[in-house]
Amino acid sequence: MLNSNIQIFDTTLRDGEQVPGCKLDTQQKLIIADQLDQLGVDVIEAGFPVSSPGDFKSVNEISKLIKNATVCGLTRSVENDIKVAAEALKHAKYPRIHTGIGTSDSHIKHKFKSTREAILDRAYKAVKYAKTFVEDVEFYAEDAGRTDNDYLARICEAAIEAGATVLNIPDTTGYCLPSEYGAKMKYLKENVKGIEKAILSCHCHNDLGLATANSIEGVINGARQIECTINGIGERAGNTALEEVVMILKQHPYLQLDTNIDTSMLYGLSQLVSDKMGIYTQPNKAIVGANAFAHSSGIHQDGVIKNRATYEIIDPKDVGVTESAIVLTARSGRAALAYRAKNVGYELTKLQLDEVYENFLSFADKKKEIDDDDIHQIVETSKVYREIMASA
Ligand code: KIV
Ligand code: ZN
C-alpha cells in the first residue's frame, strides 16, 4: 500500500475561537494564521464571515496574507452567508467555502422544524450556489455522528452532485464511539455514489474524550482530512487536538498515513495559541503539556537516564521541546539526584551521593519540587561538602 497523505484542516481560528472569553482580534489571528501556514497545515478555517464585521475582516486579511494553505470561511446553507464568505475570501490564493446544515433527525425536527427532503434540497442548493463563487466547496452535515447512515449517504450524494469537493462528517456532539465513527466513514465510502469525486473529512468533538480516537478511526476507514485545533480548544470539551493526530500518524508509520506538518513547531504553536487566547494548557496535556516529557518517580527517572526510550515514545525535540525533564521530588531516586547535581557542577562518588541523598530527602519532604538553587544548598549543607569541593 502506498503512503496516503492526510490533509490537516485547522479550525483554531473558527471552532477553536468559539471558546467563551477567547475572542481574538484580527492582528492576533494574523499572527496565528501565519504560524499555521509555516507549520504546514493544508487548510486554515479563518472564521465565519457573516457572523460579525470583525470576523469578516479577519477572514479577508488572512486571505491576503496566506500563500500556501487553502483559506476557508464557514457559512450556513443561507445564500447571504455564502455571498459574504465569497467576498471575504476574494483575495485568497486558494479559497474554500465551507457550507452545510444539520442532518440528524433531532436537528431537522427541533432546530429547523423541517423534513429530511427539504433539508436535502437546501444542502444541494447551498453547495450549488457556493460553486458559483469558488471551485473548492466543502459540505458539512452537522450532527452527522447522530445522523442515520442511509440518509447521510443520500445527502452526501446530493452535495457531490452539486459539486462538493470535500464532505465533512462532524460528530458535533462528541457522541460516537471510535468503532461507530469508523464504520460510518466506511459505510459512506462504500455506499455514496460518486464518492471518488470528493474526500471525506473527520470533524470530532471531545465531549466523551474520544475526539482524537474517532478522527484516527475515521482516517483508518477512508477519510482523508482531519479537522482539528491547536491544544484541542473549541466549544464545550473542545475539538480534536491537531498535535495529537499528527503525532499519532507519525509515531505509527505502519498505518501509512502521513501529514505535511513540521512537527518541530508544535510546542511553539501550542504556547502561542495558549498565550493569545489566554487559555492555560493542562500540564498533563498529551504532546504539549508541561509534564509531557517530565519524569518524577525514581524508577522512571533511572530508566530515562539510562535510555530515554524506556519511558518516552516521542523524542521531545521532534515536537520542539528542548529536552526531557528530570524533576526532583521526594519520589526521586539517587540516579536523578546524581544527574541533576552533575548538571549544576557536582560530580558525586557513590558514597558522597549516599550522604547528599539523605540531606535531599529531608529537603524534598518540605518542598514540592527541588530546583537548581536548592541542589546547591543541599550539597553545601551536606557533611561531605568539603570532600566534594576538594575533589572537584
Ligand atoms: O461541529 C460541527 O458540526 C461544526 C460544523 C459547523 C462544521 O463545527
Ligand atoms: Zn465543530
List keywords for this structure.
392 residues, alpha/beta, TIM Barrel, 2 domains, two-stranded parallel sheet, 15 helices, binds 3-methyl-2-oxobutanoic acid, binds zinc ion
Topology at a glance:
Layout: E1 4-5, E2 7-10, H1 26-39, E3 43-47, H2 53-65, E4 70-74, H3 79-88, E5 95-102, H4 105-111, H5 116-131, E6 136-142, H6 149-161, E7 166-171, H7 178-191, E8 199-204, H8 211-220, E9 225-228, H9 242-251, E10 257-258, H10 266-277, E11 294-295, H11 298-306, E12 325-326, H12 334-343, H13 350-364, H14 372-380, H15 385-390
Parallel strand pairs: 1-10, 2-3, 2-9, 3-4, 4-5, 5-6, 6-7, 7-8, 8-9, 11-12
Helix pairs in contact: 1-2, 1-10, 2-3, 5-6, 6-7, 7-8, 8-9, 11-12, 13-14
The structure holds 3-methyl-2-oxobutanoic acid and zinc ion.
